[in-house]
Amino acid sequence: MAGGRLAVGLGAQGINGGQQLVGSAFKLLKFEVQAVVHGMEWGGRRVALGKRYGKTRVRNKPTKLEHGEWPLAGRLVLVLVLYALYLPLSGYQPQHLRFDAGQYWELSLKFFQQGRFSLLHYDEPVRGYLGPLLVQPGRLLCHLTGWPALRGAQALGAGWAALLFGGAIPAAWRLGSGQALSGRRWLLLVGLGFVFWRDYFNFPLSDMPALTLLLLGLAALWRPHWGWTLAAGLLLAGALNIRPIYLASLPPVLWLLIRKPGRGLRHGAFAAGAALVLLPQLLINLRHFGQATPLVLAAPATKRALYLQQLTWGTAFQRVETSLMPEYPRQVLFADPAGQAALAVGPGAAFNSYPDFIHFTRKHPVDFAVRCARHVFNGLDIRFATPYLRELHPSGQAGLRVLNYVLLAAALALVLAGWRNRPRSQKLQGPATALLLALLLPCALAIPTAMECRFLLPLHLLLLTLVAASARPLAWLQQAGPGRRALACLLLLGWVWGCWQLSEDTARYLQPESAARRYE
């Protein structure tokens, strides 16, 4: 099963540092949640409150920090320094570079055979060549410094964190909303990303690099010059090679491409950029597996397709975490009793074909819908800030969960309010629609599978960005009457309580990894 996430806390030093960072960001921002979207554009028209200032209604004239976007170089350096300081203190040791992360690190050796380097030496069928290739700078750093492999992986992770939070997400927000992410709200986003996803950057996993390339590629695709379109082809093909599930993002990407003028030149530039990345994969597949496709193979020739196996696991288990704990070697599983009972009387231990799965789903439509809803919740229920679990109940876990539920409630309120207040005759602009579909379609494909929080990483970061960029709770509280405030508090308490109970219900069905063997 793909690597997990049942995680670990920071250790006393790391948690206190994270809490202080987020606390500082909240104070700097005077973080305000509002039931009306402020800062997003719906068909080019803004939802606004208060005194008019420029194109936006605000209560006070904004400061330069509030209104302006930080320079790209400043953002990259700040995030790079933050993670470069934190990751070596996160508590992970060289022996923890295992499972999927360890495999990616070792796969980078496949390019070197008989004393020479070649992309065509790579012969792993179900993992694209680009992910292991991007590990090479970390290997080189370890060779030059004598560091253990984990330190090289952490150096790479700090770089990916800087690119994701310093470059990719602000660029994608500008594409979707038509405006920059202001400095202090960007700081809040960085703090929230650190709180929930910080330890993922310790390991050379595929999730963060692939999402970073996807967002950068989408932003580049909307730029006017053909050179940006060439770069977009490179970046988007890279995301697809690293995580093949981003094939689901291809339709909105192509739709965005054909909406821009200069189609012939732009289409050629995009195809050329994509070919530079996908051609080596085509040659690898021809040389080692006899298959003429530029895509990563779904499975070795003698085994069941990986996605089909994931559908089986997703029916039998609601959630999966990867474990470093001796008492739960390799994985911690959370069973789905209803799914396991249905499999026992259905197709057997596993789905052998996609028609088998479709027939099973049509036979149990209500169970399937409920299962998918539970998977969405479990994917957004961040109980751990790490992909590799060192303890089931790390320090600070309760606060992490409550904060997550509150932020999910704020994001839901913003979406509902924005939808309600948008002009009926206007819709989301083309770039925003393409961006949302490119992020959400891969998440939709992951929902029926054995859920890991990283599978819904694009959705969770989208919600965090929406809250960080748009929420103004103090402004709403100042305008709402006592009755509405009381009702909002009751609804929020009910939401948090319900989420907590649902999460605890999932945790009741904890099982060791051995429980998954009968579904292989």
UniProtKB/TrEMBL annotation:
<feature type="transmembrane region" description="Helical">
    <location>
        <begin position="402"/>
        <end position="419"/>
    </location>
</feature>
<keyword id="KW-0812">Transmembrane</keyword>
<keyword id="KW-1133">Transmembrane helix</keyword>
<feature type="transmembrane region" description="Helical">
    <location>
        <begin position="431"/>
        <end position="449"/>
    </location>
</feature>
<feature type="transmembrane region" description="Helical">
    <location>
        <begin position="455"/>
        <end position="474"/>
    </location>
</feature>
<protein>
    <recommendedName>
        <fullName>Glycosyltransferase RgtA/B/C/D-like domain-containing protein</fullName>
    </recommendedName>
</protein>
<keyword id="KW-0472">Membrane</keyword>
